[in-house]
Design a protein that fits this description.
The protein has six helices and four strands. By secondary structure, it is mainly alpha-helical.
Length: about 220
């Protein structure tokens, strides 16, 4: 792009008829203004396309004015929504009588994974990432009924969604309480939260497949 040029510099021309868009498409700025043979018919065909491109660029929100604010926390909010749906859908997919399933005796059961996500995975991690106090909940165990675990899981993701709306990138360097009484930055807590969701969703997906069930993200869209 030519130095100092912005696509919206052409906005005042773009609203006119296509024929009025005064662009010299016969010259190439990268070959010392070498004239490129272009027929008048080709030029006319290019004008509507160029006009469309200019109008599209000018319609972009804040084009050339300001960059998006809070890119990190905005990404966290987007990931939270996607992972909440995938994890809750996985918990719903597993039959109640399979919540005690574990691939080997040394591993967590499916119910254990859900119970862990409620307290440590969501309440404590989202609290650390946001700097907000974790809610007071009753105890959850992997042996609890599916209905109780599923309700607790949904509530914990609702907490994450609520506190995530208040997070700002400027706060990520702040210190926050973490496991074992350690102090970490909210940025680190945020990254660990995202990694924890990915870790346990993949675990739940494997458990589902071992029981002949498709994980939610492996199912074809109904569209």
């Amino acid at each position: 792009m030519v130095r100092g040029f912005h696509p919206c510099d052409l906005c005042s021309h773009a609203g006119r008829k296509h024929g009025a868009l005064n662009l010299d498409v016969r010259r190439s700025p990268v070959h010392n203004d070498t004239v490129v043979p272009t027929s008048s018919q080709e030029t006319k065909r290019m004008r509507p396309t160029l006009t469309t491109i200019v109008l599209t660029l000018c319609a972009l929100p804040g084009a050339g004015v300001a960059r998006a604010q809070n890119p990190v926390t905005n990404a966290f909010r987007s990931i939270e929504q996607r992972q909440a749906k995938s994890i809750v859908d996985a918990a719903e997919e597993m039959p109640a009588d399979k919540y005690g399933f574990k691939p080997t005796p040394a591993q967590m059961s499916f119910g254990d994974v859900v119970a862990h996500l409620i307290k440590e995975g969501n309440d404590l991690l989202c609290s650390a990432a946001s700097g907000q106090k974790a809610p007071e909940r009753g105890e959850f165990a992997g042996t609890d009924p599916k209905d109780k675990l599923l309700a607790g899981l949904k509530d914990s993701f609702q907490f994450c969604q609520t506190v995530a709306t208040q997070m700002q990138d400027a706060q990520l360097a702040d210190s926050t309480e973490f496991f074992g009484g350690h102090k970490v930055t909210r940025a680190l807590a945020t990254m660990i939260t995202v990694a924890d969701w990915a870790d346990h969703y993949s675990q739940m997906a494997i458990y589902l497949r071992l029981n002949g069930l498709l994980p939610p993200t492996a199912k074809k869209s109904s569209d």
